[in-house]
Amino acid sequence: MKAPACGLDIIESCIACKACRDGFFCRFSLPVMRSMDQASHHTVMPAGALLFVEGQTSRGIFVICSGAVKLTATSKEGRVLVLKYAHAGEVLGLSAAISGTKYEITAEAATDCQLNFIGRHDFMNLLRNHAEVGVKTAMALSLEFQGACRDIHDLILTRSSSGKLARLLLSCVPKPAEPLQEQHLPSVMTHEQLAQRIGSSRETVTRSLAEMRKRRLIRLDGDILVIRDRPGLEAIAI
After folding, report:
1. Does the pTM of the predicted model rise above 0.90?
2. Of 32, 140, 193, 225, which sits 20 to 30 A from 61 (CA to CA)?
3. What string of H, E and C letters represents the secondary structure of the chain?
């Protein structure tokens, strides 16, 4: 069955889910999956829908079954920083749900998404009753912390906007087997989105990309950004 508005397959049961793979937060043993099913509320959200808003009291967690979710933080002056794009298998809202505090960020569907919502009370019961859930939660929080540390380094310790942009582009693709192998980024973000990711302006991003093209570090093939010289970009990103 597909959701009429989004065309996504509706996942009605964690046990029968065909999207779950190794590495997904929801990859549990059968007894735990049964408990999750009882606590879960499956839903489909269109692109642009808000899952939760920065400063909102936690209602629970969202497990992404398919699609992508944009995570942002906003300053008092209204400046928006895109922290990351979360994808299938990731879980959102863990820290706020466990501590019973407010969500630290805003989560917005970047594409049509299939989501699994578990209310805070039910999630805390899963933590108390199933060690598996506790271990997966600890691992997810650890990865969040490591990601935050990398972001701090990229945004604060990297000296220039060009360095930050180079780091972001490099993070979008895994390191190739051959250092001089070209790499393609078919879904590169707009200049505005790139600027939000590195805490800069669209004009600065445009100038930096033009300079990278001039130095033959990257090129554009239509909508596809090609990394021509990864070592050269890595030198900028120091």
Report:
1. no
2. 193
3. CECCCCCCECCCCCCCCCCCCCCCCCCCCHHHHHHHHHHEEEEEECCCCEEECCCCECCEEEEEEECEEEEEEECCCCCEEEEEEEECCCEECHHHHHHCCECCCEEEECCCEEEEEEEHHHHHHHHHHCHHHHHHHHHHHHHHHHHHHHHHHHHHHCCCHHHHHHHHHHHCCCCCCCCCCCEEECCCCCHHHHHHHHCCCHHHHHHHHHHHHHCCCEEEECCEEEECCHHHHHHHCC
